[in-house]
Amino acid sequence: MPADTLMEIDAATNGLIRRPALRPEIRALRDAALAVTGWPSLPTAPILDAEAWQAHTEDEDWLIWRARRTANRLLNMPLELSSGERIVGRPALRPATEAEQARIAELRPVLESIPPYPGGDAGHFHPDFEKVFALGFGGILDEVLRRQAAAGHGDKRTFYEACAIAVRGVQDYIGRVAELCDAGADDTPEWAELGAMCRRLVSSPPASFHEAIQLMFLTEIALWFGEDHGLTTPGRMDQTLWRFYEADLAAGRITREEALELICSLFIQLNMILGSGSAISVMVGGRNGQGQDVTNELTYLVLEARLATQLVYPTIGLAWHEGTPDELMDFCCRMISTGVGDPALFNDELIVEALREHGVSEADSYNYMNSTCVEIKVVGASNMWVTAPYFNCPQALLQVMQGVAEGTVPAPVSFEELNAQVRGRLAETVRDAAEHLHRVWQARAETGCFPLASCVISDCLEKGLDFDRGGARYNWVENSFVGLANLADGLMAVRHLVFETGEYSLEQLHEILQADFAGHEALRQRILNSIPSYGNALEQPDALAAEWAEFLAETTAANTVGLHPYVPGYFCWIMHERFGSETGATPDGRKAGRALADGAGAAQGREKSGPTASVLSTTRWSHRAALGGLVHNLKLSRKALSTEADMAALRAVMETYLRRGGFEIQVNVVGAEMLKHARENPELYPDLLVRVAGYSDYFVRLNPNMQEEVIARSEHEGL
Fold it and tell me: Domain boundaries in the chain?
């Protein structure tokens, strides 16, 4: 169990958990990270890219240009240090100066002459830290050069040449960090140690816990800012860093408290380089390649660092399985009760089996990550595009209704016919998206390509193929369906009002929706309160939602185009609010502009039978196909989690969900009244965290519609 040293009692949980305390220097850095707003950017990136492109010639292979672009960024991007940092290497992110703006304007013709990037996902990245830690970048360069020497002439040799350029760029960057530390060593003696550490890491693998976590951050920055792999995550930290921690602890080179501070320092740095509204993730727990539980002391330290920093990044996921220790589950329930929003629980039993069904090897199937929110990728071996794209489910129903009203769609004579028409509309949308993305995949192979990523993703170097040209071991696309509950509840209302009672024609109901229920508030309230809705363990709506979820999974797989499989997801990030703001009133009683349902569970405010009923509804259908991610949000009041009995009840609800085949469950523990007070007095709640739809965010930084959506969720007073 976590030690009680350097801990503060968390009053919000009646002392059921202790929150780790931060030293003043680290606390100051944490507060500076909390103050970061907007989207920090690298102001010199356009200048560096243009300068690299100016050196490009017609006979230069595209891969060489891409590698030179990465190396030029890493050699020249501005860096900064802050007093008290234990982890270093952060780029100086700020608005462009007037001189830089003028230079960018001067280089605009050069920038416009660069072939445009084709699109598609290149972020949500999970490098093979096991390899990075085993070889270091010096060892990776040796491997590249060895393979290059054996490749002879042709495309493979060019590929390895590009990889070597990119890796040398990383080494240049790490060396520059060392020089920056050296320059400040007279004023800050600790920087001399960090400078020497970075100098070793230029060519050598890490030899200590501190060196390993430092190299982890340097690798993330190199991939993120050198090659545009945004949201590069620390991954399975309690596994990749364990051997270093275990060895240092045994040799007396580190204490538990020092390791905790280093993890906190990493988390703080992540918040320095990314504004709110996105996500970075860490996964703990789970099983190894032999199926054995991997819980260790680092598992707790990572969780404690999240408690101590109380910042938006990273979110922590726990890979739950039947062998997860009771002690760990109890600690997680106490942690959730603080309102930090973590950990989210992922069903390791389900996800491992689902990955194998998609061709992932047994050993690799245990080594997965939630790709920042809840999308699943195999660590260090994947080129998987996530949320590509999001689909608005209730919009398809509205389109059919509009077509019927305008006479462009045949009027259905039965509910089954209407249901089939909506299916056809969504299937067509999914197929069109797959065909578009296939063209993007093809374009990426020509004018995409990532030589640096190819060095830290299996099996690119082994095959001699770039990340974008089929080098990665696993390649697929993960889309996501938004508003499943709104679609199911809307169809329930249409079935009752149009096809069962005959009170309205489809055209009349469409007209009412077009008017946003104006003059028909009584009908809207009847829909909301009298027609059965999904999320309450009721047969009809749950069966309809299950039918639709299964259809969406089937149509995703059936519309695969080209060589890349497609898998579905049922989460939203912020798209439920964005889609909702663009979507008119829907037959489920939702008014125009309001957010759609926030995940795979009930629509906001529709859970009227308690959390257990909600869990039973969401697990009415199989989640095995949903590797694109699935969210079940649970919102509890603080008073619902104030005793040991409450902790046991929370654990029972979550484990019921998981044992019934639930994919992921996350919990908000904050009352509606507090949220309303925070909305009116944001200065009093700068670090109030809420779970949105797969990720966490500062409540006071959400837009008003999203704040209202979070407040509107059903708040359960007890379990």
Answer: 1-35+268-287+295-374+631-719, 41-232, 390-630
